[in-house]
Write a structure and sequence with these properties.
The protein is of the alpha/beta class. The protein folds into two domains: 46 residues, no CATH class; 255 residues, 4-Layer Sandwich (Metallo-beta-lactamase, Chain A), CATH 3.60.15. The chain contains eight helices and 17 strands. A seven-stranded mixed β-sheet has the order 9-8-7-6-5-4-17. A seven-stranded mixed β-sheet has the order 10-11-12-13-14-15-16. Strand 15, helix 8 and strand 16 form a beta-alpha-beta unit. Helix 7 packs across helix 8. The radius of gyration is 18 Å and the shape is globular. Bound molecules: zinc ion. The site of zinc ion has 6 residues, from helix 2.
């Protein structure tokens, strides 16, 4: 049994309270664990960390909130990327052991409520929490418009100029290369019921591609080619394919097929609709690599 994401020289040191670790046995993932000790932190990782802040589809369930992700290239440098803000993102960051000030950039994939709905709450919680560092928000132009409407609804727009911390907005389009929290990234249009961007992130440990919400489409190929880790949504099972087409989402079978096509080493399934074991089994029918069905606050070394 080995623990991924921990530098060999410090393998016996203990990760932060709340840190989740991937447990592998004979080369296969057997679980994702959560550190619950209270020892002080002595761990430093050379890998980036991906924290699944939420893993549910649009309808949250007990213990599983709307899908959002945090990627920390280095926990120490305060340079972290948050992807989407539905659900209680601020609380999830705290429960995941991520100081909210560690998030420098927020990328919003699209303007559905389960991906953007709690932006005002996040901004206000950061202010109340004493944030001073700038927050950079990235999104499609039409999504930036929604962020302004949400902020204006709470009169934040009148005060942002003199607020406790600067909030900056940058529009992103299909095919654009950008830098998110110090990570070289590439955005590609997906095929959902509203304009949506997927992300390709070039991390030192390998490429991470994230589809966000979409049905199968040709752009996923250029987003995910050669990815070490493919993260896809998984709102339905194959038996619900008609629903998936109507709402422009993926089935677990399609997620597995996409992972096979891009040659990913592992597939992580988020935006989970059906039960975890059902989607895992269906994805494994067509993808022979590692299939991860994370719970909220599980963490992966990248
Ligand atoms: Zn969604």
């Amino acid at each position: 049994m080995t623990i991924e994401g921990i530098r060999p020289a410090t393998r016996l040191a203990l990760p932060d309270l709340g840190t989740k670790i991937e447990i592998r046995e004979a080369g296969s993932q057997v679980g994702l664990a959560r550190i619950t000790h209270n020892h002080p932190s002595r761990i430093h990782t050379t890998m980036a960390q991906l924290i699944f802040l939420g893993t549910a589809a649009a309808l949250p369930v007990a213990g599983r909130t709307n899908t959002s992700l945090a990627i920390l290239s280095d926990r120490a440098d305060g340079n972290g990327l948050l992807i989407d803000c539905g659900g209680d993102v601020y609380g999830s960051l705290l429960r995941g052991g991520v100081g909210p000030d560690s998030i420098s950039d927020l990328f919003i994939t699209h303007a559905h409520i389960d991906h953007i709905g709690t932006l005002p709450s996040l901004l206000e919680s950061l202010r109340l929490g004493g944030r001073r560092a700038p927050l950079q928000i990235w999104a499609l132009p039409q999504v930036i418009s929604v962020t302004h409407a949400l902020i204006q609804a709470y009169d934040f727009e009148l005060t942002l100029d003199t607020w406790a911390y600067p909030v900056r907005f940058t529009e992103v389009g299909d095919g654009e290369s950008i830098t998110l929290a110090g990570i070289p990234a590439y955005a590609a249009s997906m095929d959902h019921t509203v304009p949506t961007l997927g992300l390709r992130l070039e991390l030192p440990g390998g490429v991470v591609a994230y589809t966000s919400d979409t049905q199968p489409n040709p752009h996923i190929g250029r987003l995910s080619q050669g990815a070490a880790t493919l993260i896809t949504e998984c709102t339905f099972l194959g038996a619900q394919e008609a629903k998936a087409r109507t709402s422009r989402h993926l089935t677990a079978y399609e997620a597995g097929r996409l992972a096979s096509e891009c040659g990913a080493a592992r597939l992580a399934l988020v935006h989970q609709g059906p039960p975890a074991e059902s989607i895992r089994a269906e994805a494994m029918e067509v993808f022979s690599g590692q299939v991860i069905v994370p719970d909220d606050l599980d963490t992966l070394g990248l």
